[in-house]
Amino acid sequence: MCAKPFHANDLGNHALREAQRVATALAEAGPSATDLISAPTMHAWIGVQDTRFGGAILMGRPEGHPVCRGPVSHTSRLCGLDPDLTWARTMTRWYRLGVPADPGEVSFYALRYGIPRDLILGPDRLRDAISWV
User: Fold this and answer.
1) How are beta strands 94-97 and 41-49 bridged, if at all?
2) Which backbone phi and psi does 97 adopt, to 5 degrees?
3) pTM of the model
Protein backbone atom coordinates (compact mmCIF):
# COMPACT_ATOMS: atom_id res chain seq x y z
CA MET A 1 0.00 0.00 0.00
CA CYS A 2 1.35 3.43 -0.92
CA ALA A 3 1.70 6.24 1.56
CA LYS A 4 -0.76 9.07 1.34
CA PRO A 5 0.71 12.02 -0.61
CA PHE A 6 1.88 14.92 1.55
CA HIS A 7 0.02 18.18 1.26
CA ALA A 8 1.17 21.44 2.85
CA ASN A 9 -2.39 21.97 4.14
CA ASP A 10 -2.09 18.74 6.16
CA LEU A 11 0.82 20.23 8.10
CA GLY A 12 -1.04 23.51 8.63
CA ASN A 13 -4.19 21.73 9.80
CA HIS A 14 -2.15 19.57 12.17
CA ALA A 15 -0.38 22.62 13.59
CA LEU A 16 -3.71 24.43 14.06
CA ARG A 17 -5.28 21.43 15.81
CA GLU A 18 -2.24 21.14 18.08
CA ALA A 19 -2.35 24.86 18.92
CA GLN A 20 -6.07 24.53 19.71
CA ARG A 21 -5.38 21.55 21.94
CA VAL A 22 -2.65 23.37 23.88
CA ALA A 23 -4.65 26.60 24.25
CA THR A 24 -7.71 24.67 25.41
CA ALA A 25 -5.68 22.69 27.95
CA LEU A 26 -4.21 25.95 29.27
CA ALA A 27 -7.70 27.47 29.55
CA GLU A 28 -9.02 24.42 31.38
CA ALA A 29 -6.15 24.61 33.89
CA GLY A 30 -6.55 28.37 34.28
CA PRO A 31 -3.84 31.01 34.42
CA SER A 32 -1.16 31.33 37.05
CA ALA A 33 -0.67 34.59 38.92
CA THR A 34 2.39 35.22 36.73
CA ASP A 35 0.33 34.65 33.57
CA LEU A 36 -2.13 37.31 34.63
CA ILE A 37 0.45 39.82 35.81
CA SER A 38 2.05 39.86 32.37
CA ALA A 39 -1.23 39.61 30.41
CA PRO A 40 -2.69 42.55 28.52
CA THR A 41 -6.07 43.85 29.67
CA MET A 42 -9.09 44.09 27.39
CA HIS A 43 -11.36 46.98 28.39
CA ALA A 44 -14.90 47.67 27.15
CA TRP A 45 -14.97 44.23 25.56
CA ILE A 46 -17.59 42.31 23.64
CA GLY A 47 -17.69 38.81 22.28
CA VAL A 48 -18.16 38.43 18.54
CA GLN A 49 -19.20 35.21 16.85
CA ASP A 50 -16.71 34.20 14.15
CA THR A 51 -18.88 33.17 11.21
CA ARG A 52 -15.90 32.33 9.03
CA PHE A 53 -13.98 29.95 11.26
CA GLY A 54 -16.41 29.21 14.10
CA GLY A 55 -16.10 30.01 17.76
CA ALA A 56 -15.72 33.58 18.96
CA ILE A 57 -13.24 36.40 19.44
CA LEU A 58 -13.11 39.33 21.83
CA MET A 59 -13.13 42.91 20.67
CA GLY A 60 -12.36 45.89 22.85
CA ARG A 61 -9.78 48.40 23.98
CA PRO A 62 -6.46 46.68 24.69
CA GLU A 63 -3.97 47.89 27.26
CA GLY A 64 -0.47 46.48 27.62
CA HIS A 65 -0.59 44.31 24.50
CA PRO A 66 2.83 43.81 22.90
CA VAL A 67 1.55 44.42 19.36
CA CYS A 68 -1.98 45.88 19.34
CA ARG A 69 -1.83 49.61 19.97
CA GLY A 70 -5.01 50.89 18.34
CA PRO A 71 -7.95 52.24 20.22
CA VAL A 72 -9.93 49.09 19.35
CA SER A 73 -8.59 45.65 18.54
CA HIS A 74 -9.71 42.04 18.45
CA THR A 75 -8.18 38.85 19.77
CA SER A 76 -7.40 35.54 18.19
CA ARG A 77 -9.90 32.71 18.69
CA LEU A 78 -11.27 32.40 22.21
CA CYS A 79 -10.47 29.10 23.96
CA GLY A 80 -11.51 29.76 27.54
CA LEU A 81 -13.38 32.26 29.69
CA ASP A 82 -13.30 32.61 33.45
CA PRO A 83 -16.77 32.12 34.99
CA ASP A 84 -16.24 35.37 36.94
CA LEU A 85 -15.12 37.17 33.75
CA THR A 86 -11.71 38.14 35.16
CA TRP A 87 -9.65 36.46 32.42
CA ALA A 88 -9.86 34.91 28.96
CA ARG A 89 -7.58 32.56 27.06
CA THR A 90 -7.23 32.93 23.30
CA MET A 91 -5.22 30.85 20.87
CA THR A 92 -2.19 33.04 21.48
CA ARG A 93 -2.32 34.53 24.98
CA TRP A 94 -4.03 35.26 28.27
CA TYR A 95 -6.05 38.43 28.74
CA ARG A 96 -7.20 40.11 31.91
CA LEU A 97 -10.74 41.31 31.40
CA GLY A 98 -11.78 44.79 32.40
CA VAL A 99 -15.38 45.91 32.51
CA PRO A 100 -17.44 44.65 29.55
CA ALA A 101 -18.69 47.19 27.02
CA ASP A 102 -21.69 49.22 28.09
CA PRO A 103 -24.69 49.49 25.71
CA GLY A 104 -23.31 52.68 24.14
CA GLU A 105 -19.97 51.04 23.41
CA VAL A 106 -21.72 47.97 21.99
CA SER A 107 -23.65 50.25 19.64
CA PHE A 108 -20.42 52.05 18.68
CA TYR A 109 -18.67 48.76 17.82
CA ALA A 110 -21.67 47.54 15.84
CA LEU A 111 -21.95 50.75 13.81
CA ARG A 112 -18.26 51.60 13.42
CA TYR A 113 -17.10 48.10 12.51
CA GLY A 114 -20.23 46.81 10.79
CA ILE A 115 -20.87 43.98 13.24
CA PRO A 116 -24.41 42.61 12.96
CA ARG A 117 -26.10 42.75 16.37
CA ASP A 118 -26.91 39.03 16.30
CA LEU A 119 -23.16 38.25 16.16
CA ILE A 120 -22.41 40.24 19.33
CA LEU A 121 -22.31 37.80 22.21
CA GLY A 122 -23.01 38.51 25.85
CA PRO A 123 -21.11 36.46 28.45
CA ASP A 124 -23.55 33.50 28.44
CA ARG A 125 -23.66 33.22 24.65
CA LEU A 126 -19.90 33.77 24.56
CA ARG A 127 -19.29 30.76 26.81
CA ASP A 128 -21.46 28.63 24.51
CA ALA A 129 -19.46 29.78 21.47
CA ILE A 130 -16.22 28.45 22.96
CA SER A 131 -17.45 24.87 22.51
CA TRP A 132 -16.04 24.78 18.94
CA VAL A 133 -12.79 23.40 20.37
Assistant:
1) parallel
2) -105, 125
3) 0.79
Task: Identify which of 26, 1, 10, 2 has the alpha carbon closest to the alpha carbon of residue 91.
Answer: 26
CA 60 – CA 74 distance, rounded (Å): 6
C-beta of residue 20 within 8 angstroms of C-beta of residue 91: yes
The answer to whether 115 and 58 are in contact (CB under 8 A) is no
Q: How far apart are CA 42 and CA 21, in angstroms?
A: 23
d(CA 123, CA 106): 13
Question: Looking at residue 117, what is its pLDDT?
Answer: 93
pLDDT tens for 49-106 read: 988 878 899 999 999 887 877 789 899 889 889 999 999 998 888 999 999 999 999 9
Report domain extents, the chain: 8-132
What mean pLDDT, rounded, does the chain reach? 82
The secondary structure element, H or E, covering residue 37 is helix 33-37
CA distance 14 to 49: 24
